């Protein structure tokens, strides 16, 4: 029997909003916004409008908005660029960063001091920030657990030591209110496909000073921080998606937390021995759990067969499912990380999606646990 598909992996990517598709189609024919003739000026106007709208929605100046090709690129340009623009050799980061930050730091071959993380998935001791560093990195909310980090405190502590701060806000932009100016971060990364814009479209907000040193070298677009000819249609679609997402933040926070809470309570009522990894304060649509004794891969496959699309939430490189570095960092045992499943809700989620999970979860977990015993 064919099941209706139930998509509960919005933190991985969320369906494009119609306003973004419309904006993209409207401007698909735009030419090079750097051209000094009429078609160039026309494209430039669309790009400028997108930049101004994004700046307004995120509390930044238009010049601080840099279009990139992904959240990953924005993270890399910021971390590597801020490190290279400093004379210091020290970096402070966290063990729960997305690979876009973790691997960028690793590639610098510098000793990175990692802030410890508590069982609630939040950085717990900020004292490493009191010693000056080339850059401090802290994500605003974690992509696996949804845990919202004490980002204001992190920025205050780092700033007091004169350390620039990069914030990976890929899971936050379009989901929580963001005011870049008030936040006081040096750079901030976002990704359009997490808020209903096109995939392969990122944003880097970068203060004028200290600015990241160039990592990519080319024609000098985007203040030389991200050279390359810009895709005007993608910029317009990103701005349109962000405008709609930001406009819905308050209502969606209420709606999604209610759905997420119903999902969590329903699962806890139907299945024994469940570990809940998402603790408050967390993003409204996130629910990360472990079903000890089951393998995440089996759970995902069985859910998929029942029409439910969710993920383990951990890095799945070359098809090998590794224990989540995020769960390990918050003290979950290796065995328990193996039975992890992440459900994430978003703008197309409904009560029926939650019901669909609850209708099958007991049997799915029982079967995955039986499979896990052999
Ligand atoms: N940072 C976080 C916290 C993410 O969740 C993601 C995407 O999963 C990224 C960075 C990378 O974004 P992108 O997929 O646009 O490269």
Describe the structure.
- It catalyses: (sulfur carrier)-H + L-cysteine = (sulfur carrier)-SH + L-alanine.
- Belongs to the class-V pyridoxal-phosphate-dependent aminotransferase family. NifS/IscS subfamily.
- The protein is 40% helix and 13% strand.
- It has 374 residues and is an alpha/beta fold.
- The model has no long low-confidence stretch (mean pLDDT 96).
- The chain folds into 2 domains: 6-14 and 249-371, Aspartate Aminotransferase, domain 1 (Alpha-Beta Complex); 18-244, Aspartate Aminotransferase, domain 2 (3-Layer(aba) Sandwich), CATH 3.40.640.10.
- It is built from 11 helices and 14 strands.
- Bound molecules: pyridoxal-5'-phosphate.
- Pyridoxal-5'-phosphate binds at residues 70-72, 75, 98, 100, 139, 143, 168, 170-171, 191, 202.
In short:
Keywords: Iron, Iron-sulfur, Metal-binding, Pyridoxal phosphate, Transferase. Helix content is 40%, strand content 13%.
Low-pLDDT sequence parts: none
How far from one another are the termini?
28 Å
- Widest sheet, order of strands: 2-8-7-6-5-3-4
The DSSP helix count reads 11
For the record, the count of structural domains works out to: 2
Supply Rg: 21 Å
What compounds are bound to the protein? Answer: pyridoxal-5'-phosphate
The CATH class assignment of the largest domain is: Alpha Beta
Largest sheet: 7 strands, mixed
What's the SSE pattern?
Answer: EHHEHEHEEHEHEEHEEHEEEHHEH
The fraction of residues assigned to DSSP E strands is: 5-15%
Find the structural class using helix and strand composition: alpha/beta
Q: What is the approximate shape?
A: globular
Percent range for helical residues? 25-40%
Tell me the CATH architecture of the largest domain. 3-Layer(aba) Sandwich
CATH homologous superfamily label of the largest domain: Type I PLP-dependent aspartate aminotransferase-like (Major domain)
Determine the mean pLDDT. Answer: 96
CATH fold-level assignment of the largest domain: Aspartate Aminotransferase, domain 2
Tally of strands? 14
GO molecular function, one term: metal ion binding
Cofactor: pyridoxal 5'-phosphate
Catalytic activity: (sulfur carrier)-H + L-cysteine = (sulfur carrier)-SH + L-alanine
Family: Belongs to the class-V pyridoxal-phosphate-dependent aminotransferase family. NifS/IscS subfamily.
């Amino acid at each position: 029997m064919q099941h209706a598909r139930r998509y509960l992996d919005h933190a991985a990517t969320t369906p494009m909003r119609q306003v973004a598709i419309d904006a993209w189609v409207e401007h698909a024919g735009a030419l090079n916004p750097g051209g000094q003739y009429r078609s160039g000026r026309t494209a430039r106007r669309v790009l400028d409008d997108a930049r101004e709208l994004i700046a307004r929605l995120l509390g930044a100046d238009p010049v601080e908005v840099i279009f990139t090709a992904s959240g990953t690129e924005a993270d890399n340009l910021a971390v590597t660029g801020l490190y290279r623009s400093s004379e210091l050799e020290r970096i402070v980061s966290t063990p729960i960063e997305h690979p876009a930050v973790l691997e960028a730091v690793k590639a610098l071959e510098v000793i990175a001091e990692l802030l410890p993380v508590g069982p609630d998935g939040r950085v717990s001791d900020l004292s490493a920030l009191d010693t000056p560093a080339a850059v401090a990195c802290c994500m605003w909310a974690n992509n696996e657990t949804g845990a919202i980090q004490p980002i204001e405190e992190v920025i205050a502590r780092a700033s007091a030591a004169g350390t620039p701060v990069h914030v990976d806000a890929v899971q936050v932009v379009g989901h929580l209110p963001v005011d870049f100016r008030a936040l006081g971060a040096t750079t901030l990364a976002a990704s359009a496909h997490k808020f209903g814009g096109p995939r392969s479209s990122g944003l880097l907000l970068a203060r004028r000073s200290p600015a990241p040193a160039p990592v990519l070298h080319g024609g000098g677009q985007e203040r030389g921080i991200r050279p390359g000819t810009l895709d005007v249609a993608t910029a317009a679609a990103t701005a349109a998606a962000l405008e709609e997402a930001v406009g819905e933040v308050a209502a969606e926070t209420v709606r999604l937390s209610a759905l997420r809470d119903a999902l969590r309570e329903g699962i806890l009522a139907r299945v024994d021995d469940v570990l809940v990894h998402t603790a408050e304060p967390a993003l409204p649509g996130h629910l990360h759990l472990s079903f000890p004794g089951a393998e995440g891969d089996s759970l995902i496959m069985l859910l998929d067969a029942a029409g439910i699309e969710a993920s383990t939430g951990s890095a799945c490189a070359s098809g090998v499912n590794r224990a989540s570095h995020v769960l390990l960092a918050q003290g979950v045992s290796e065995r328990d990380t193996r039975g992890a499943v992440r459900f994430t809700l978003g703008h197309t989620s409904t009560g029926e999606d939650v019901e669909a999970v609850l209708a099958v979860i007991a049997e799915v977990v029982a079967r995955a646990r039986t499979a896990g015993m052999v």
